[in-house]
Predict the 3D structure of the following.
Amino acid sequence: MGRPPRFDSLLVQLRLAVLGTAALGFTAAALATIQLNRQHLIRDHRQRVEAAAEQLVARLDAVAASPQPVDLSRLRQDLDRQSRRGRFFWIRLSDGRLLLSRPLRGIDTAALFNVPGGTGSGPGPVAARTIGNHRYLMQRHHRSRDGTDLWVAEDVNEHWRALVRLLINMLLIWLGCLALTLLALTLFTRRIIRPLRELNRMAAAITTDTLATSRLPVAGAPQEVKDLAEAFNSLLERLARTWDHQRSFVSAVSHELRNPLTIISGYLRRLQRRGGSLQPEQLRALATAEAETHRITRLLNDLLDLSRSESGRLELRPGPVAVDEILLMACDLARSQLARRLELRLPENSSEQPVMAIAEADRLQQVVLNLIENADKYTPDNSAIEVELLRGHGPAGQPGLVISVRDRGIGIPPEDLPRIFERFHRAANALDQARGSGLGLSIVQLLVDAMGGTITVESQPGQGSCFRLHLQAAEAQGLACGSREGPSAQ
């Protein structure tokens, strides 16, 4: 079954407008034709009656002007002489008596005598009446000075049937023309709308990677569509230039700031190692400064990753890595910067043989640190963050590993879950909870996708969230296991 029509569609509105206009035009033409034929029928009727009733009118005027009594037999003979099959005359005397012609004496004339006669001495309005299977036009044709009326009825059955046939033929023609109009309208509107659909298809395919090279075609399109496409192409050019400037600015600023931050971080660590003469408050201030330096460095790295991804220069080379060792290093680094408890759970046999997965070590550590930092923002001070490594299924269902980062914080509302990995998106209940750039989770998904993994999230408001990173497992091949902690480290 096809899709139902959308009445907010330009194509549907155009078809309805033209089809409605055509239907209105055909209807008006049909009604005008019927009215003209009816008037023509009445005009012919009056002309025929005028010629046939000339002698009767003269006789009635003469009788009205004569002082002699009315000779009813003479008037009846005149009626019989002028009446014939299909046209009848009768007279209504001033005292109300009727004189009928011979053809009327065998007809049910009840319908003939309730026709309004009008005023004045001239012809009255024409009325149509059906008697039996015949259609009659009748009117008061003349009124004498003494109030005597001459009436006439004419059988127009054949003319009426011809008018009905004309109406039926016009209705069939109207329907046929309407169908042809709809067919032609469908073909023409498709041709007219095709450039707009092509513009819509090409515009939907434009991404930030193709912004500088994508242009909408204008050849062969109507002038209005050409103007729209040219305006859109001009907009694309301006957006491409702005996007290039933005990426260049972000890349340049990130590179320029990384070196000073590295130097500052090094001096802060040196001061803390040699800070035997410093007060505890001063040591805490140095630790806070170092933590903020690490946070800004991670933010700059995130911006660089986004810039490289947008320009197609983000290159990852996933390979077999020891996931348990990466988690140990990431958790140790996180503990040095967090004031809360961080629990790490590893598989039971991880101390004997490394747990291997397909990933890139530095990027995987960055992903885990971002997830831990995100959990820290929304977790109460008395709650711990749980990091766990499990053997399970990879992205496509093959043997793999699952890294979960769980918090007991405010949770994520269900309506925000589909957009949680979008850039700068923050859940409605997190707007006033913590500060951040809004890039952390989008960077996580970007890096996980680049490593061939997947990430999912489960959350309940008020109960916390659990992010699960699925990686493809790899075999350990001669990798040395350095000094490691046991299955569970805190």
Q: What stands out?
A: The longest strand covers residues 134-143. Residues 476-490 have pLDDT under 50 and may be disordered.
